[in-house]
């Protein structure tokens, strides 16, 4: 027995940590992102190890210069040691460039994988997700959150390994020179680690707030600076108000950016001051030890040790900063993982039913549907309708009666909450998405066009369509003559959301796109609602020609488009109240007849004018 899915509901906002993955689990998940590139990372590790060994060799060469070559006047040895120091610098640079190249490439590949994974996950989300989520919020997760990881992902792994290796190698070299001075140098290291952890936690909290504010700004920009947003703002006289609102959002971001930049800055500066003062402490300790009768430390050993100790400063501070950055990045990863972890309710079956040739019978078998399981009454209830192959069904009713919702169930934009929708006797939930997309074509009341050429918009339905096929589809939709009259013809850019075309022209382009796809089942969701009477008649002729021999479900507000349907059903509050042919419903003189009279009355002034 099939388990009915629960419609998607958006996840609750972060409330401060409850229910969120703990850092160890999250770190393991982050490390898994790098698993496909472990071979390259191993090579980076070898380069890092080689660079660390080369870098610690230089102070030992310096000790020999000061303690042996110069005092003994051995020019040959001095030249050899000096050449060795130069060679270590060259090798360090070469190793550094190579490891940066490889690690940056790996980091960018990981970011590419994340972006692609989030985009693919969003492509699988049900329509309900996008009706409840601001577009700017979605864009911010892909652009701002993943983009904010760039420095961390591309350099953190290498920096972590490089600095850790450098610190270990340097400490070993310092112990080899003098263990007592090494103990003095490492005395304050636990305090430094504690400070860096406190700073990291503080920055993580601020980063979470900052990314939310960036998402809010992105949503404001997306909505208010679109073509529709600009038109609405100007025609309503709200441009100044929108600017003030954006300025307020931006002002909030200023404070968060300053807090993020200054978080722990004084504490981290304290570490820098202490580390910079360490050479003086080393010289003092060596002097005190000598005056107290302890063993003398040679000038070469002391200078070499201070050189190593200063070399320890950079990787240690960098290692602590890397820890801070990783804690900060956990907030970004958490926001991205939230999208990757969204539940996808509408999924392909594990074993889809093959349906090579679709005849086109559509049946609604005791269908219930509710957008929210908690709502008291479903949007659709008890629908039981069969549309035979090649037949036509018209769905009419008042606004909010559930007409468009019914149309969304056939291409499986939503899943029913009870009952089933079948295509040729097969539940649409048992078909793979490609089969369903080839079988069912949809022309909705809102024609969406990409900011691309007319040809590209039409070819979106059939990527391998020839120019002749595109032109034939445009002719069938009564739009070819208009396209041909444009200076650039089919190469004309349609503009953002097709703004360079009128509503009727956009609708005809959408119809042409569906004609080009040539599906056996058509769902026309008020497809002629944006057309004037004359254009509607022309397009209706094209739709009639297209519908011949195909199963057609027409969701109509204008009842003049449904008179010839094989069956008409009238919806009221999600239930079928009347059904029959046009003449049968007229004779019934019920709800349909009343809708028809209202439709005629609404057209009367337009005809008179």
TrEMBL record:
Its main location: membrane. It is a multi-pass membrane protein. Keywords: ATP-binding, Cell inner membrane, Cell membrane, Membrane, Nucleotide-binding, Transmembrane, Transmembrane helix, Transport. GO terms for cellular component: plasma membrane. Pfam families: ABC_membrane, ABC_tran. Residues 362-598 form the ABC transporter domain. Residues 42-328 form the ABC transmembrane type-1 domain. It comes from the Bacteria. One of its GO terms (molecular function) is ABC-type oligopeptide transporter activity. It is found in: Cell inner membrane. The keyword Magnesium does not apply. One of its GO terms (biological process) is oligopeptide export from mitochondrion. Residues 1-24 are annotated as: Disordered. The chain crosses the membrane at residues 41-62, 77-102, 157-177, 183-200, 269-290. SUPFAM superfamilies: ABC transporter transmembrane region (SSF90123), P-loop containing nucleoside triphosphate hydrolases (SSF52540). The keyword Protein biosynthesis does not apply. InterPro entries: AAA+_ATPase, ABC1_TM_dom, ABC1_TM_sf, ABC_transporter-like_ATP-bd, ABC_transporter-like_CS, P-loop_NTPase, Type_1_exporter. CDD domains: ABC_6TM_exporter_like. PANTHER family: ABC TRANSPORTER B FAMILY MEMBER 28, ATP-DEPENDENT PERMEASE MDL1, MITOCHONDRIAL. Belongs to the ABC transporter superfamily. Siderophore-Fe(3+) uptake transporter (SIUT) (TC 3.A.1.21) family. This is Multidrug ABC transporter ATP-binding protein.
């Amino acid at each position: 027995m099939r388990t009915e899915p629960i419609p998607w509901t958006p996840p609750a906002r972060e409330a401060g940590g409850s229910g969120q993955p703990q850092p160890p689990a999250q770190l393991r998940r982050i490390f898994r992102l790098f698993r496909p590139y472990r071979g390259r990372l191993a090579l980076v590790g070898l380069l890092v190890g080689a660079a660390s060994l080369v870098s610690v060799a230089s102070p030992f060469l310096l000790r020999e210069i000061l303690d042996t070559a110069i005092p003994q006047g051995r020019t040959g040895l001095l030249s050899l040691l000096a050449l060795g120091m130069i060679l270590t610098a060259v090798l360090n640079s070469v190793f550094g460039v190579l490891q940066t190249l490889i690690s940056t490439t790996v980091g960018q590949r990981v970011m590419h994988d994340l972006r692609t994974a989030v985009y693919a996950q969003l492509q699988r989300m049900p329509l309900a997700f996008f009706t409840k989520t601001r577009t700017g919020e979605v864009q911010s997760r892909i652009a701002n959150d993943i983009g904010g990881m760039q420095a961390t992902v591309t350099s953190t792994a290498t920096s972590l390994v490089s600095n850790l290796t450098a610190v270990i190698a340097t400490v070993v070299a310092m112990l080899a020179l003098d263990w007592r001075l090494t103990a003095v140098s490492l005395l304050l290291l636990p305090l430094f680690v504690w400070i860096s952890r406190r700073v990291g936690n503080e920055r993580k909290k601020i980063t979470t707030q900052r990314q939310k504010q960036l998402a809010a700004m992105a949503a404001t920009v997306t909505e208010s600076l679109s073509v529709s947003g600009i038109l609405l703002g100007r025609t309503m006289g709200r441009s100044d108000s929108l600017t003030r609102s954006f300025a307020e959002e931006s002002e909030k971001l200023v404070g968060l950016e300053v807090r993020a930049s200054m978080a722990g800055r004084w504490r981290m500066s304290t570490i820098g001051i202490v580390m910079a003062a360490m050479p003086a402490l080393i010289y003092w300790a060596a002097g005190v030890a000598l005056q107290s009768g302890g063993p003398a430390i040679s000038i070469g050993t002391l200078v070499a040790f201070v050189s190593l100790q200063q070399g320890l400063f950079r990787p240690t501070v960098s290692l602590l900063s890397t820890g801070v950055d990783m804690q900060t990045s956990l907030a970004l990863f958490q926001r991205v993982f939230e999208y990757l972890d969204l539940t996808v309710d509408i999924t392909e079956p594990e074993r889809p039913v093959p349906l090579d040739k679709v005849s086109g019978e559509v049946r609604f078998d005791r269908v219930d549907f509710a957008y929210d399981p908690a709502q008291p009454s479903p949007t659709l209830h008890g629908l039981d309708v069969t549309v035979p192959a090649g037949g036509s069904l018209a769905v009419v009713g008042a606004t909010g009666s559930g007409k468009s919702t019914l149309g969304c169930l056939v291409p499986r934009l939503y899943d029913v909450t009870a009952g089933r929708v079948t295509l040729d006797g097969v539940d649409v939930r048992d078909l793979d998405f490609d089969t369903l997309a080839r079988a069912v074509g949809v022309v909705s009341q809102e024609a969406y066009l990409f900011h691309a050429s007319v040809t590209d918009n039409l070819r979106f339905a059939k990527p391998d369509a020839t120019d002749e096929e595109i032109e034939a589809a445009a002719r069938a939709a009564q739009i070819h003559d208009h396209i041909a009259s444009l200076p650039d013809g089919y190469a004309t850019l349609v503009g953002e959301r097709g703004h360079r075309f009128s509503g009727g022209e956009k609708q005809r382009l959408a119809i042409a796109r569906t004609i080009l796809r040539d599906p056996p089942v058509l769902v026309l969701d008020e497809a002629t609602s944006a057309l004037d009477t004359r254009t509607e008649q022309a397009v209706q002729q094209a739709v009639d020609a297209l519908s011949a021999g195909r199963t057609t479900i027409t969701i109509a507000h204008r009842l003049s488009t449904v008179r010839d349907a094989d069956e008409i059903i009238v919806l009221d509050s999600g239930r079928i109240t009347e059904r029959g042919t046009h003449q049968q419903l007229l004779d019934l003189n019920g709800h349909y007849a009343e809708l028809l009279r209202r439709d005629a009355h609404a057209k009367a002034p337009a005809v008179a004018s």
